[in-house]
């Protein structure tokens, strides 16, 4: 696996068909964050199809296709269907992340911030909840039709303890997320480019700010949402390895 692999925080990867909750007061950051979380909270179990186009400085664009099986709020299995990583799997259960490589004798523990490909990371196939992970403060001035919130991670050890979130005034959906390291160094800029008619994320773009002057960009398109029950054994190392 190259070090030029996935790196990001595409934090609301998994959206749902839930209707928008009532518009929260402009001064209530908790309500605003919960409303921004609502689209993916209702999609609690099923399969999502994902197409990624990785653009890295000095390299030809690379396309990857994946399927992501999700169960609950912190359990997922990503399976690479096409591209150089074909056959590899990433199992995420809570804070534990395992890379499963065809032919390898055992899964490889990795961190959520470890690079996989382009500007997305292992943690991007997990689903961060803004209201759960961050405390927010609403800025007094709106920008480009958005409320702007300064976020601080609630727990120590967060990969991106400092963030700025832009949320649409009209629909409460996340529009942009800017992530920084504990040092204050800017790390990622995430644009939630479009949502479908069921308020599910359709396309997004992740820009890596740590290297190549922001030239490394990963574009994600969510091609399929299929809600259906999944066997819990799929989310064990043995079950994930046996998954087709």
Outline of the structure:
With 244 residues, the chain is mainly beta.
Average pLDDT metric: 82
Strand content: 35-45%
Main sheet specs: 13 strands, antiparallel
Query: Could you give the count of β-strands?
Result: 15
CATH superfamily: Lipoprotein localisation LolA/LolB/LppX
Structure classification: mainly beta
Termini Cα gap: 22 Å
Give the overall silhouette.
globular
* Radius of gyration, CA atoms, in whole angstroms: 17 Å
Count of the separate structural domains: 1
According to CATH, the fold-level topology is outer membrane lipoprotein receptor (LolB), chain A
Oligomer: single chain
Order of helices and strands: HEEEEEEEEHEEEEEEEH
Assign the CATH class.
Mainly Beta
Helix fraction bin: under 10%
* Uncertain regions spanning at least 5 consecutive residues: 1-20
Strand order of the largest sheet: 6-5-4-3-2-1-15-14-13-12-11-10-9
| CATH architecture identity | Clam
Number of helices: 3
């Amino acid at each position: 696996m190259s070090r030029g692999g996935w790196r990001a925080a595409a934090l609301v990867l998994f959206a749902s068909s839930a209707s928008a909750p009532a518009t929260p007061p402009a001064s209530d950051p908790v309500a605003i964050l919960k409303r921004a979380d609502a689209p993916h909270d209702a999609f609690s179990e099923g399969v999502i199809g994902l197409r990624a186009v990785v653009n890295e400085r000095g390299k030809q664009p690379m396309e990857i296709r994946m399927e992501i099986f999700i169960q609950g709020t912190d359990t997922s299995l990503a399976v690479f269907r096409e591209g150089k990583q074909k056959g590899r799997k990433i199992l995420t259960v809570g804070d534990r992340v395992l890379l499963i490589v065809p032919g390898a004798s055992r899964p490889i523990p990795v961190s959520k911030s470890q690079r996989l490909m382009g500007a997305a990371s292992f943690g991007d196939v997990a689903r961060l909840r803004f209201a759960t992970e961050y405390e927010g403060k609403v800025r007094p001035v709106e920008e480009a039709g958005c409320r702007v919130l300064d976020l601080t991670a609630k727990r120590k050890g967060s990969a991106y303890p400092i963030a700025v979130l832009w949320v649409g005034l009209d629909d409460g959906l996340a529009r942009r997320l800017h992530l920084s390291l504990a040092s204050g160094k800017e790390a990622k800029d995430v644009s939630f480019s479009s949502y479908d008619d069921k308020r599910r994320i359709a396309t997004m773009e992740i820009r890596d700010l740590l290297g190549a002057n922001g030239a490394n960009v990963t574009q994600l398109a969510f091609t399929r949402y299929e809600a259906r029950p999944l066997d819990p054994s799929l989310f064990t190392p043995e079950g994930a390895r046996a998954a087709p």
